[in-house]
Structure formats: C-alpha cells, structure tokens
Amino acid sequence: MSSVFLVWVHPNTGVGTPVNSANQVYPHRAILKSMPNQPAEGQISPKVRMPRELWKDAGQVAAAQGTDRGTIIKAFLRWYIGELDAQLPTPATRATKETPDA
Hints:
The chain is an alpha+beta fold. 25% of the residues lie in helices and 10% in strands. The chain contains two helices and two strands; from the N terminus they run E-E-H-H. It has helices spanning 52-64, 69-80, and strands at 5-9, 16-20. Strands 1-2 form a two-stranded antiparallel sheet.
C-alpha cells in the first residue's frame, strides 16, 4: 500500500510540517521545497491537443525504440529551432500503402 503525504500548514505562520495520512508528524520535520508532481525548476508541463491515436502510436514507437515520447518531442523541437548539433529522432519504419490494382 502506498503512503499518502500531507502537509499541515500553521494558520498563523504559513509554515508547513509534513505529516502522514494518520496525521503523525515525520520525525525529521523536513519542510517540503516544492509540491510533488510539479515540474522541476526551469521546466514546464505544456498541454498540447492532438488525436488520441497519434499520442498512443507515438508512445508505442518510442517504447519500441527504448525511449519515451518526451525525449522524442524534445529532440524534434531542438532540431526545429535550429540548435547546433541537434538531430531529428529516428522515425518508425513506415508501412507501405497498398494501392489497388487498376
């Protein structure tokens, strides 16, 4: 079972004290510097709309190449803006489209 982490903030001081779901203060009484699941400093989490199938297919191709979508997107953007030494990510092998016989 995973633990739930909460921060109790004193109403007068605004100082947070980490506590667990049983409302027990952690012995080390460390103050959290940032909220969990937030981007690291200098990073953003942009929201982009795209077809669900495109996102799913990109994830499958990236996993097959031993990487992830974020790495692929960053590589493409570095190439797109013209960063020195930036290279396009390796595309998936494209299936040939069958054409009906005339």
